[in-house]
Amino acid sequence: MNKLGPRVSIPDAFKTPEYRILIVADKFQTGFDEPFLHTMYVDKKLGGVHAVQALSRLNRTKRGKSGTVILDFVNEAKEIQEAFQPYYQTTLLEEETDPNKLYSLQTELEQFYVYTKEDVKKFAEVFFNPKEKPEKMQSILDKVVYVWSQKSEDEREDFRSILQAFIRLYGFISQLITFQDVELEQLYVFAKNLNRKLPKSKQRLPYEVVDAVDLDSFRIQETYKGYIRLKKEDGEVLPITHGKPKHPEDEKDLLSNIIEILNETHGIGLTDEDKVDIERIKVKLEEDAELRAVMNEFNTLENIRYKFDKIVDSLLLDFVHTKLDLYKKLTTPEVNATFKNKWFEGITTHLFSDGR
């Protein structure tokens, strides 16, 4: 897309006059030490240490660089102030991070009986062998996701939270010490990939409520200008979390996540009005008798996916006469593939967990 030479990296190209604008999703959000960075436009939610890491990309000094500018379209000034405050002066860790807690988390995960040690071992054998086909990993994860989907909602979210705690703790400690335990490393790569595969939890609003939302207009308004003042006091940060999690509240629903991914990845600008229209398709899709007939544990994912894609295409076709612009957005090949992939993951778990 950037038409760079075969041996020219993006960081190197950024130093040249032709490539002085860098559009970032996540990759350069942290750890990109480039003194030339001067102005940042923020169009995504930032919080905690991620806000500090992302916005601090501009604080590298350079001759002739006397100031920096951040234009934030999403975050409130108070939220950014709260994110930076703990790191303004001396920062203390509330308690130590114990490597042995990894084994406690490993035991807690096994007690859910969502996966077996053999699942982890087989996954690792494929993951660490470049000659193996990646598709083999997906079949292992699909089986685990199905078992997870049969648990109660509380059990599913408890497992997800402990899984994420293990990933965070291992990722943190592995930067400080070298583990000799092969099983922990295998569980880490398995957990990271499983976490991406688990559908996001969702609490959908009643259809009649969503249908009543009507977005007439949208305007941009400046809410804060200038620099954010921080208090001259020491701060405390929490250690890597572990143990029994609290159940998440008010997490984004599946549809909001899909729209956010499409907007960030493909920049198609789906609006709240578009979400209402897509929600109508979602209701029809979940109630479709043909799809529900093939959604069962005895059918293959390939067969289910084939039927799913056919029905989605048919429902999208309804937009040709009523919402042509939305139809064009969602039928662009790259967008359509992402749209269906994310939706299929969500609706598969939704229908299985409902016993349909």
Describe the structure.
The chain has helices spanning 10-13, 48-55, 77-84, 101-110, 117-127, 135-149, 153-173, 182-197, 207-212, 254-266, 272-287, 289-294, 301-316, 319-322, 324-331, 333-353; strands at 39-42, 69-72, 91-93, 235-237. The chain is mainly alpha-helical and 356 residues long. A two-stranded parallel sheet has the order 1-2. A two-stranded parallel sheet has the order 3-4. Helix 2 packs across helix 3 (77-84) and helix 7 crosses helix 8.
How much of the sequence is in beta strands?
under 5%
State the helix count.
16
Strand tally is: 4
Mean pLDDT: 76
What does the radius of gyration come to? Answer: 23 Å
The figure for the number of domains is 3
Query: What summary fits the major beta sheet?
Result: 2 strands, parallel
**N-to-C order of helices and strands:** HEHEHEHHHHHHEHHHHHHH
Low-confidence stretches: 91-96, 204-211, 247-252, 351-356
Classify the secondary structure makeup into a structural class.
mainly alpha
Termini separation comes to 44 Å
What order do the strands of the largest sheet run in, or round the barrel if closed?
A: 1-2
- Shape descriptor: globular
Q: Roughly what percent helix?
A: 40-55%
